[in-house]
Design goal:
Strand order of the largest sheet: 1-2-3-4-5-6-7-8
Oligomer: single chain
Largest sheet: 8 strands, parallel, barrel
Bound molecules: 3-methyl-2-oxobutanoic acid, zinc ion
Structural class: alpha/beta
Radius of gyration: 28 Å
CATH architecture of the largest domain: Alpha-Beta Barrel
Helix content: 25-40%
Number of helices: 16
Length: 504
């Protein structure tokens, strides 16, 4: 265990409260339960599930999460108002995050009150919450801009009246590690202290670490760093930095982190930035020749975290920066055998494609390798006919006639839109031959107007095997169909087919 921190750092996750305050994000009670369950399963100590006073939906979320028997403590945000506290107790919360503004700016301009009035409200609220049997975390909003002697005396009185824990909020992200070293130690002496940081200046994680070094025992975090404006301290970054950089065992099931991040991204509709630390798509993806070559030989050359530690896999993608080692390794995985001359030619053609600004998909690599190795590949699936109907009075429906392994198959399917209907009908039509899943769908418009060339890239999987493929047309539906059929054909190619005339 590290000497820098307390033996057991606690984590309060506020994805379902501060995270949900991200503009545009709104979760229903079932979605909140799904996320809370996952947070509890991975070992989060306290889950702040929302704000009981906000709406009926919030109260019902609090109730179903409290009834779910999670191992995490179930907490809800409350103001220093009796009604908020009653909602928390009546709907089953274990604890309240009782928030009072503590800077003069908030007290005077927002609340139009005096310090004494706010302190009196806080004390009354702590007493009321204790009478209602709740654990109380008394939280100072905008604490980093507060008069610290007022804050210390308010917190001390709160603890005398029964508050169990305290929380220092850097509400608009103005803390620095230097201020933390000055402000936190006196407060951490009063009672167990949480730190709640915002990332307006990109310092949330740094300040959270600094606070824990100064005596804070609990970190407020959110999954993927969601939260008001620039968000809060990201759970995944804090946990992995503690584990990797400080060799501190957090007790969090890190191998579930990516699954949790993807779940939260899907349910909130907030995409993961591709280059986000730990959970971004590119965090374990390598293209450049030197890097890819390095990680193929020894992953630690260009990776500081083993992807498996957070439930991810390394990806080597091909493009203009690729070198022969990564191309050879990708070809090897696809059962192609090449001699040096053929490999060189394949690398050259991949670089050409990359220079045209294209992502090089697996299907592209297969097409290039087939051409260079003069393999006369006959696709398993051929499309004879495809129709899609959509409009203001029609349920989007697609129908298709395919020839699969020489046999004619027809099918029809509806969807949420014409593209979805097209994807569904293709997948369902070949369901008897193979269970192919669409893992990812991505569209790029190549030029600006309504007649733009549209490029669709898909990622498909079958029995754990993954393939990427692309379609490019001015018609988005046909581009999607083209990408899908190219990918399905790639996945259905015979495993033992001889792919190489001159094996080395
Ligand atoms: O950032 C903040 O100050 C908050 C409080 C409302 C707890 O989220
Ligand atoms: Zn906040």
């Amino acid at each position: 265990m590290s000497v820098l921190f307390v033996d057991k750092i606690r984590f309060l996750d506020t994805t379902l409260r501060d995270g949900e305050q991200t503009p545009g994000v709104s979760l229903n009670p079932e979605q909140k339960l799904e996320i809370a369950t996952k947070l509890s399963d991975i070992g989060i100590d306290v889950v702040e599930v929302g704000s009981a006073a906000a709406s009926d939906g919030e109260r019902s979320a609090l109730q179903i999460i409290s009834d779910a028997g999670l191992s995490s403590e179930v907490c809800t945000f409350v103001r220093a108002l009796p009604q908020d506290i009653d909602f928390a107790a009546d709907y089953g919360a274990d604890s309240v995050h009782l928030v009072v503004p503590v800077s003069d700016l908030h007290i005077e301009k927002k609340m139009r009150k005096t310090r004494d009035q706010v302190a009196a409200m806080a004390i009354a609220a702590v007493r009321h919450a204790k009478e209602r049997g709740l654990i109380v975390e008394l939280s100072g909003e905008d604490a980093s801009r507060a008069d610290q002697s007022f804050l210390q005396s308010l917190f001390a009185k709160g603890v005398e009246c029964g508050a169990d824990r305290l929380c220092f909020c850097d509400t608009v992200g103005l803390l620095t590690p230097e201020k933390v070293a000055e402000f936190i130690p006196p407060i951490a002496k009063i009672a167990p202290l949480s730190i709640h940081c915002h990332d307006d200046l990109g310092f949330a994680l740094t300040n959270t670490f600094a606070a824990m070094k100064s005596g804070a025992t609990c970190a407020h975090v959110t999954v993927n760093g969601l939260g008001e404006r620039a968000g809060n301290t990201p759970l995944e970054e804090l946990v992995m930095a503690l584990e990797i950089l400080y060799n501190y065992q957090t007790g969090i099931k890190t191998e579930e982190i990516y699954h949790l991040a993807s779940l939260v991204s899907r349910l909130t509709g907030v995409p993961l930035p591709v280059n986000k630390a730990i959970v971004g798509e590119m965090a374990f993806t390598h293209e450049s020749g030197i890097h890819a070559h390095g990680v193929i030989r020894e992953p630690s050359t260009y990776e500081s975290i083993k992807p498996e530690m957070i439930g991810r896999k390394r990806r080597i993608v091909l493009g203009k920066h690729s070198g022969s080692a990564s191309v050879e390794s990708a070809l090897h995985e696809m059962n192609y055998k090449t001699d040096d001359h053929q490999l060189k030619e394949i690398v050259k053609r991949i670089k050409q494609l990359g220079d045209e600004g294209k992502r090089v998909t697996d299907a592209d690599l297969m097409a290039i390798a087939d051409a260079v190795l003069a393999i006369d590949y006959k696709p398993v699936i051929k499309m004879r006919q495809f129709t899609v109907v959509s409009g203001s009075n029609a349920i989007p429906t697609a129908s298709v006639m395919l020839v699969v392994d020489g046999q004619e198959i027809t099918g029809a399917s509806s969807g949420t839109g014409p593209v979805d209907a097209a994807m569904q009908v293709l997948r369902k039509s070949i369901a008897d031959v193979a269970d192919i899943r669409l893992e990812e769908y991505h569209v790029d418009a190549i030029s600006g107007g309504t007649d733009a060339l549209v490029e669709v890239t898909v990622r498909l999987s079958k029995d754990g095997k993954i393939i990427t493929s692309r379609g490019a047309r001015t018609d988005i539906i046909m581009a999607s169909v083209e990408a899908m059929i190219a990918g399905m054909n790639g996945l259905l190619r015979g495993e033992h087919e001889n792919r190489g005339k001159n094996p080395r």
